[in-house]
Amino acid sequence: FDTYVIYKAPFSSGNGWYDVNKTRSGGNIDIDKNLCFAATASNMLHWWLDQNSENVDNYIAKNGDIIRANRRLSELKNSFESQEESKIFELYKVLYGYNERGFYSDLLMDLFINGYRPRLSGATNIENDNLIPDNNGGFFYDVFKGEKLTDRTDGGDYEYLSEKLKEVLGDGGLVGLSHKALSRNHIVTLWGAEYDLNGNLKAVYVSDSDDQDESDVGMKRYEVRNVGGKAKLSTNISDKSAGAAVGYLHILYLGSNRWNNYFK
After folding, report:
1. Could you report the per-residue pLDDT of 81-100, keeping only the tens digit for each?
2. Which residue segments constitute the domains of the chain, with CATH numbers given?
3. H helices present in 139-187, as ranges
4. Tens digits of per-residue pLDDT, 174-206?
5. Minimal CA–CA distance to 91: which of 73, 64, 66, 106?
6. Is residue 36 annotated as part of the catalytic site, yes or no?
7. Cβ distance 217 to 9 under 8 Å?
8. Active-site residue, selected from the candidate residues 20, 35, 36, 174
């Protein structure tokens, strides 16, 4: 039998990281059983609103409250109450609930910020200066217009992942980390990365929407292994080649330059 060691910490609010969870067993689990992509987008947007808190307040002061999808920005801004209660995730449950397959976190963030209508194919949005924001999003269309704050890139190569995370986290970005366990794609929110003395990626710290039935867990540490050049996430300490292959990185940036220009 293989031995697994999982490092985990309980969730505590007010520390700048978020852990939106799916419905617990006994509840209506069908609505969000495939919504890990929406929970990750919700975490990332809560973080983004938090980091941009002053800008968002000034934006509302300048324009009045922004209402899209019958929701007020002022109410969504600080709407993470607990792992079970997020008004952003509630919005995504209305838009994507009972989904039989997964989707892409970056597209949900583009919808919320710019108003890009997600393409059913899942293809990334091409920046469009003539964007007309979708009614279900575009809360910050006035600031960013068609300029995306997201990026999607394949993180499967270990060396690339190791360098890319340094770059993104160093630039103040946040990452949704997708990976394939068995035949199933899953995505979690990455809050930190650990490197060895040679600068090689050793581990990541993530919050996972799918640990809702575990007691008192918010953040987990997964080792990142270089298996034949490919990056794998694992807690297996017996089989060093085991693990979930890393897939796409869904990246969100703060948009600081655009904010500064907007308020000039």
Report:
1. 776 778 999 999 888 877 77
2. 7-262 (3.90.70.10)
3. 141-144, 158-170
4. 999 999 977 788 889 999 999 999 999 999 999
5. 73
6. yes
7. yes
8. 36
